[in-house]
Write a structure and sequence with these properties.
- The structure holds two protein chains of two kinds.
- Chain A is of the alpha+beta class.
- Chain A contains three helices and five strands.
- Chain A has a five-stranded antiparallel β-sheet.
- Chain B is mostly helical.
- Classes of the chains: A alpha+beta, B mainly alpha.
- Chain A: It comes from Sedimentimonas flavescens.
Chain lengths: 224, 92
């Protein structure tokens, strides 16, 4: 039973943690090397990782997607997709894909004279499934070693914690004020039923006992 | 456009549910505090009717209070946040 419980909590932590890791914004320090646009097939299960920038895009089987290819500060390549999130999940309300592509174009640089930039993005890169993080913003920075404090994530996680604690407090108040009194009433009602049943049992034994006594009078034994 | 309508309608429903739940929760907290205030130090010759009257008066006062009015923020803030986000992500 202990293992079932631990497995349940581990799975829950994994799902919630994975969801937050995918959805919350992250920052990479990169050097843009190229931007391009490529036709993407959207027919398989990896569809969930592409956006629905406008209403008809959810029914298309393929469409053009813009990409930003970069080299990160650690020298490894990273490719971002650049898609509107529109009014859909996750709630970034990004509508400026074309402008972002232009800004990225403007920051293109060579290894000899690098222009470093910080890309804000959400999502995961996975070569095996061909999924890409979605770039949300790009901003030039002084160098590859600048320190970025994730204020948005700190703020959002604190707000999330406050919401969870509030829901817990609401549930406790509801239980204390609405459910517990009911349970007490039921408990009291049940005690009453038991008392009545005991009393009825006593009465029944009384009648039965008197009947048996009467029967015994036939055998000449005296009534008790 | 459909996406905007879906967000607006789902958001309005979600905010309305949150508003309603917080309304009941906050009222329940105030009533409990009033009950405890009376029970901790009941006046001499206190009757159950006096207790009910004290609580009802306190609740009427609560309904006019700032705390009760602040719960409206649950309906207003999400729309403001969406507006600020659209500005920051696309225009700033």
């Amino acid at each position: 039973m202990k293992y079932v419980k631990w497995t349940f909590w581990a799975l829950l932590a994994l799902i919630v943690g994975g969801f937050l890791h995918y959805t919350l914004p992250q920052h990479d320090i990169v050097r843009v090397v190229n931007t391009y646009q490529e036709r993407q097939d959207l027919g398989d299960w990896t569809r969930i990782f592409w956006s629905d920038p406008d209403d008809q895009s959810s029914t298309l089987t393929n469409r053009d997607v813009q990409f930003i290819s970069t080299i990160r500060a650690n020298g490894k390549p990273m490719v971002y997709r650049n898609e509107d999130t529109g009014w859909n999940w996750p709630p970034y309300f990004k509508f400026d894909t074309a402008s972002l592509q232009t800004e990225a174009d403007d920051l293109k640089s060579s290894p000899e004279s690098p222009k470093w930039a910080v890309i804000t993005h959400y999502g995961w890169r996975n070569q095996l499934f061909s999924i890409f993080p979605n770039a949300v913003g790009i901003k030039p920075v002084a160098g590859p070693d600048v320190r970025i404090i994730p204020w948005v994530n700190i703020f959002l996680l604190v707000v999330l914690l406050i919401i969870v604690l509030t829901v817990r407090a609401i549930w406790r108040q509801f239980r204390e004020r609405s459910i517990d009194p009911l349970v007490e009433d039921v408990g009291e009602a049940w005690d009453e039923v038991e008392e009545r049943a005991d009393a009825a049992g006593d009465r029944a034994r009384g009648v039965w006992g008197r009947f048996m006594d009467w029967l015994r009078t036939w055998s000449g034994k005296p009534r008790k | 456009m459909i996406g905007f309508l879906r967000l607006a309608i789902l958001g309005a429903v979600g905010a309305a549910v949150a508003y309603w739940v917080l309304l009941i929760y906050s009222r329940s907290l105030r009533r409990e505090a009033l009950e405890k205030e009376w029970d901790a130090d009941p006046p001499v010759g206190a009757t159950p009717e006096g207790r009910d009257l004290f609580i009802e008066e306190g609740m009427a006062e609560y309904e006019r209070s700032l705390r009760r009015k602040l719960i409206w923020l649950v309906l207003v803030l999400p729309a403001v946040v969406v507006g600020v986000l659209i500005y920051l992500v696309n225009y700033a």
